Amino acid sequence: MTTTMSAADLWLPDPEEHDFPAAADYLDLIVDADQVERIVARLREAPTRAKKAKDVMRASQLPLLPADNVHVRHNIHKVRDGKKLSPVLLVRGAPLLIVDGYHRVCAAYHLTEDLDIPCRLVSP
Questions:
Q1: Which domain of life is it from (predicted)?
Q2: Tens of pLDDT along 26-65?
C-alpha cells in the first residue's frame, strides 16, 4: 500500500501489558505450565529488536491473512488513524512461533512487507 512508512510511525516502543497473558494463553496450548512461565518471563526481559515483516511471515510458515480479515483490517485502520501497534512476541523454532501479534504482523505486511516490525524474540 505504501512504502514511506517507518517502524516509528506504526509501533509502540514496548509490548503492551495485556500481550504477555495473551502469549501465555497461546503457549499453554503447546507447552507445559513451567515452560509457559519461563518463556513469558524471558519475553518480558528481552530487548525489543526489529525484523522485517516478510521475514517473520516466512519464518513462521503461517499463511498471510487477507487484508479484509476483521482483525487485520482493524490493525490497518488503527495505523491509518495514527494509533500505534504493540510489538510482537516471538519464540524461536522451526517454524518460528508468533505467540502474540499474528494479526499485527499480517497488517504490517499488507502495509509494506519490507517494514521493520519491533519484536521480542526468545528461544524456548
A1: Bacteria
A2: 999 999 999 999 999 999 999 999 999 999 999 999 999 9
